Amino acid sequence: MSPIPHKIAYVTATWNPVTGCPGPKISRGCDNCFAERMAKRLRGRCGYRADDPFRATMHEDRLNQPALRRRPTRYLVSDMGDLWHDDVLNPWRNRVFNAALASTRHRFLFLSKRFTNMGKYILDLLFLDTVPPPHIALGLTACTQDELNRALETLSRLSLMGWHTWLSLEPLLEPVDLYHATQETTAPDWVVLGGEKAQAPRDMEPDWARAIRDDCAVLEIPFFMKQMATKVGPGLTPPAIPGDLFIRQIPQTLRLPGEIDHA
Ligand code: SF4
Q1: pLDDT value, residue 130
Q2: Is the CB of 113 under 6 A from ligand 1?
Q3: Nearest alpha-carbon partner for 208 in 222, 221, 196, 190
Q4: Burial state string for 82-114 with b = 16 or more CB within 10 A and e = fewer than 16
Q5: Residue pair 148/115 in contact by the 8 Å Cβ criterion
Q6: Is a pLDDT exceeding 80 seen at residue 104?
Q7: 145-160 vs 115-123: helix axis angle to the nearest 10?
Q8: Residue of the nearest CA to atom 4 in ligand 1?
Q9: Which of 23, 81, 121, 179 is deepest in the core (most CB within 10 A)?
């Protein structure tokens, strides 16, 4: 079975065994939620409920998609919702984790905006009695300095437990100081940065991105520039990433066979 088509530069496929993320919104980054727009557009189709398409939903039939895919793939997990929304049940998360644990030929990027829920779930993991698996990375999204500081606290704890961690700064909504934010914490293993992609995207100044690029270089964190702020609509082409920002590094542990950096 083929994975769902995607246009996310840092992964080769998305995998959505759980979708949905009903309110309340928890970040300014949620204001133009792509997942919610897609769920409403697909209302009544593709596994989205007709009456409440963005409700947290487990899709049993998708659990084995990675197991059936032979080609090594780097998956972004449940980007059509938030796996750590309060309405997502722990037994669902356990099943998703177990499916990822079993598919060691792939790489899995988990991602959430709910720092506390993810941290608590991982700390409470009862079924995992081995060291954290190298083919899974746990990520948090931060759009502002305050979110960055809080995300790093959780990622740092996970990192100390031995998990690979990553940070998504998308959509970046203000300049942030990554260097000083990491002085009291363990730095994440990867930083992915992107401007907002929406019909009316909020600005992301190129200099905000340059500052993060430079902090990553000093901290020796692989840096991946995904996109500038991008207005989407029929016939529109995305703005080019300035040459000095077009850096697309991937940590060794998350690379697929034959992958190289673009820097
Ligand atoms: S947490 Fe993610 S999926 Fe949920 S509303 Fe915000 S942007 Fe959308």
Answers
A1: 63
A2: yes
A3: 196
A4: bbbbeebeeebbebbbebbeebeebbbbbbbbb
A5: no
A6: yes
A7: 10
A8: 21
A9: 81
**DSSP assignment string, the chain:** -PPBP---TT-SEEE-SEEB--S---SGGGTT-HHHHHHHHTTTSTT--SS-TTS-EE-GGGTTHHHH--S--EEEE-TTB-TTSTTS-HHHHHHHHHHHHH-TTSEEEEEES-HHHHHHHHHT--S--SSPPTTEEEEEE-SSHHHHHHHHHHHHHHHHTT-EEEEEETT--S---HHHHTTTSPPPS-EEEE--EESSPPP--HHHHHHHHHHHHHHT--EEEEE--EE-STTPPPPPPPGGG--B---GGGPPTT---B-
Q: Is the CB of 25 under 6 A from ligand 1?
A: yes
Q: What is the pTM of this model?
A: 0.95
- CA 168 to chain CA centroid, Å, is 6
Tell me which residue has tokens 């929406």: 198
227 token code pair: 């996109």
Question: pLDDT tens-digit profile of 191-233?
Answer: 999 999 999 999 999 999 999 999 999 999 999 999 999 999 9
Which of 14, 16, 27, 33 for mutating ligand 1's site (highest number of atoms within 8 Å of CB)?
A: 33
| Average predicted confidence (pLDDT) for the chain | 93
* 35 close to ligand 1 (CB < 6 Angstrom): yes
Residue having the nearest C-alpha atom to atom 7 of ligand 1: 30
